[in-house]
């Protein structure tokens, strides 16, 4: 009987042990070949503790621009240790009157954590229903992957937030820039947006588009 029980216990114990991973991490080698899965891995012998630390979010970004806001990314292109881990982050600084216009992240959901100030935020579902909130210090809001969303300053002081993402490269497409910061012909934009030509030309001029 003992000869039967021991192999069974051994098999059970081995099944409870964690499976060995082929690699604990894959720090990005930006100079190597890439694939849909991400960057190639830096040789482990060349990896150091510094690869796992990023200090780029410590300082405020410049809000002296058209939207009075700054987004400082800690994506895989800036923080190479994120490669393959399915996470990333960014810092938002939004001055009074500032806004991060309607945009999407095609490859990731976003979790926004307000650090200072007040932020008016919201997203629009695929059924065109808006979900909006006024966020104070310490509040958290989630923006599902691929949905249009925005953040705007809701007070008289600069608002600061940290955004985390469910991908090392979440992607970004700002609606206004997609329409007016390129060479799409004005008549075509009229057809797809129902805007008047003078308004389209005004927006193209502001955002650097042509056509």
TrEMBL record:
Name this protein carries in UniProt: Germin-like protein
Acyltransferase is among the record's keywords: no
Species this protein is from: Platanthera zijinensis
Residues that hold Mn(2+) according to the record: 103, 105, 110, 149
Domain of life: Eukaryota
Keywords of the record: Apoplast, Disulfide bond, Manganese, Metal-binding, Secreted, Signal
InterPro entries per record: Cupin_1 (IPR006045), Germin (IPR001929), Germin_Mn-BS (IPR019780), RmlC-like_jellyroll (IPR014710), RmlC_Cupin_sf (IPR011051)
Binding site for oxalate: 105, 110
Similarity field: Belongs to the germin family.
GO cellular component, one term: apoplast
Signal sequence coordinates: 1-22
Gene giving rise to this polypeptide: ABP19A
Residue ranges occupied by any Cupin type-1 domain in the UniProt entry: 55-201
Pfam family, one: Cupin_1
Disulfide pattern: 26-41
Keyword hit for Aminoacyl-tRNA synthetase: no
Location relative to the cell: Secreted, Extracellular space, Apoplast
